[in-house]
Q: What sequence folds into this?
């Protein structure tokens, strides 16, 4: 083996726009720049080559060529022009993008229309000045509440849609979870006397944006509080697995309907009467920005839910 091309068939010549004589004796990387080290590049790979003055995407599979005794006598490369496939992928991505934008726009319009209708109705009744002072005060409270709701929808949507800068630093995960548990215990939303147990498994450092990850923990904790029954229990703990840590939020609430499981991280999806339906979407987005993930588990209605936030551990 001398690492030189000895056969270049007609299909290869057609794709590369090179004739047989111009290729024979050259290194494969001279024609296919992505093959820097032929001997260590067995398997499938993709890259771009110059063909007739334009760059063409190709997919290639390299296999060892052996003789009758099993001894390697060369390497055979089979490649194809991926131009049409790449164009089809781009077209599918464009259609999926526009379909998502259309679905998202419809969801935003629906979420904004409800508080706007309530706000408009309250203002119209106040303008007519035919209501008592007590009822006028009630209508004003509704109007202010709906304005706060609109602001919340817009704030959450911007948090979900706008690219956010990640300020990475190593921070103590144990303290962050204990702080979140304390906030959940004192939250006015915890009016059902829910018991919150925080038992992180010792000091663990995560390399990430502490404020944004606390937003993830807060969203999941608040979801658990809202789902828990009166005098329910929420368990927050960590499990270390190799170089990652799982932050677990478990509740004994009504669980998740199997039909809803695939949609719970969709923006604006919610089974609650209030809320924007963006909490889990935002949490997933932040987790993914940190190289992590969130897994939802439920054995079905009435059997509680478990959310696992998977994050890489810091090297420090």
A:
């Amino acid at each position: 083996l001398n690492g030189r091309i000895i056969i270049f068939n007609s299909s290869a010549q057609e794709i590369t726009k090179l004739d047989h004589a111009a290729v024979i004796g050259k290194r494969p990387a001279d024609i296919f720049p992505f093959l820097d080290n032929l001997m260590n590049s067995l398997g499938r790979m993709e890259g771009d080559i110059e063909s007739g003055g334009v760059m063409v995407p190709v997919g290639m599979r390299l296999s060892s060529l052996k003789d009758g005794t099993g001894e390697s006598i060369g390497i055979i490369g089979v490649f194809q022009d991926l131009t049409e496939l790449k164009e089809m992928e781009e077209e599918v991505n464009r259609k999926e993008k526009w379909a998502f934008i259309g679905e998202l726009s419809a969801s935003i319009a629906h979420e904004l229309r409800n508080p706007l209708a309530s706000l408009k109705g309250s203002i119209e009744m106040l303008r007519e000045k035919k209501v008592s002072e007590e009822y006028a005060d009630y209508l004003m409270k509704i109007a202010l509440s709906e304005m706060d709701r609109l602001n919340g929808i817009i704030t959450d949507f911007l948090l979900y849609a706008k690219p956010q800068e990640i300020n990475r630093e190593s921070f103590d995960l144990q303290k962050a979870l204990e702080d979140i548990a304390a906030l959940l215990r004192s939250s006015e939303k915890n009016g059902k006397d829910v018991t919150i147990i925080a038992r992180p498994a010792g000091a663990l450092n995560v390399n990430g944006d502490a404020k944004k990850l606390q937003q993830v923990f807060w969203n999941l904790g608040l979801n658990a509080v809202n789902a828990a029954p009166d005098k329910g229990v929420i368990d927050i703990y960590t499990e270390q697995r190799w170089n990652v840590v799982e932050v677990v939020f478990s509740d004994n609430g009504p669980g998740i309907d199997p039909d809803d499981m695939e949609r719970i991280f969709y923006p604006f999806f919610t089974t609650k009467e209030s809320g924007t339906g963006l909490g889990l979407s935002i949490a997933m987005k932040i987790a993914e920005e940190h190289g992590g993930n969130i897994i939802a588990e439920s054995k079905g209605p009435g059997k509680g839910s478990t959310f696992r936030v998977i994050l890489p551990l810091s090297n420090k």
